[in-house]
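debug: dumping io for the single-chain case to check the tokenizer round-trip. Nothing else runs in this session.
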Amino acid sequence: MAGAQNDGLSLAERRKLLAAQRAQQGSGSGAAPAGVVVSSAAATPEVALDLLVHNPRNARRSLEGVEGLAETYEGTGLLQPCLVVPVATFRAAFPEHAADLPDAGYVVIGGNRRLAAARKAELKTLPVHVNAKLETRERILVAAATENIAREELKPFEELETIEDLKAALGTYDAVARKLGKSAGWVSQRRRLANLEPEVREALESRVPGMTIELARSLGKIKDREKQLKAWEAERQLAEDRESETDGTKKETPKGKSKVPAQKKADTASPALDDAAKARREACRDAVGAGAGDLARLCLIAAQAPAAPGEAVALAGEWLTEAATGLSALNLSALAGDEGTDRQHQAAIALALAHCELHMSRTSGSDAPHAGAYVDWLETHTDYQSADAELAPTA
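debug: decoded output
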């Protein structure tokens, strides 16, 4: 009795230990399956590396940072278990990959990079978590996608491929959004990459100067090949011109000085954003990257949205930086003509949207006329779709 009550383990740890002991006894012989070792201290099964295989459906085409992880594992081992399913379960869910898998063992659903690093570090075993609920194609795809997207480990086209795989399994893109805990707009924005011409796609994958993920998504709205390529060429030329400007004026900027004064931390501090605010701000980034839209109407809306100037400039600067336009587009001293007209137009959109968004966040949409006008602008010029009925445009 004393041994059961005073073993120094918490109730949760004792439950894990009991589950591990039952797993060992599952074959009736009292021994763990070949290649599986159960640690009584952690109550976490450890599986021999030769029984673990990479997920053939893993969206990540390249496993980066493996060498750094391997160096860590050589000293400390792997602490976080890999999420796995038995090979038989995976074969049943994905019969098209049956020939790629061994007859026994486990398929790693979450932790493929960890597995690669462990092999490089020449570890013998890895801690695993066998999730018995992952027995269908849909559940395995959702589990893998959720882990990769939550960790922001996927590249843009890997993310797109994941979304398309989930759509094939779930039936609709709305279902994909719900399963991933994302908005329909989030999914729609990423799907635009499917419309990119090969030359534009190559520019994004090669990280050509001037190309950003936001710009690529905006270009994806253009279905006509020639128009899309022309728009990309214009953006690429602008990036080259800006780079030339920077090289020519760098020495004229006093050391330690910035063209746009740095804002105080108090000005830029903002509360944690909810999902609705995150979706709106992603739409704002898209609008700034595109540099298009009804600026006159937006400015009228923004003029009725009071916000701290420093905070609005800081938020607009973030969007302009991500759009590869740069914070200097907001520099007042450059408005005499040193900045290009297109950059000033883009900066005006960014600043107006920043005023609107900050006002929206502070009032939580209680200013119905302003909220309705702002949301209507986003829905007109981006793929943003409001889930809040009370934010519908007012007459």
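debug: round-trip ok. The chain has 18 helices and six strands.
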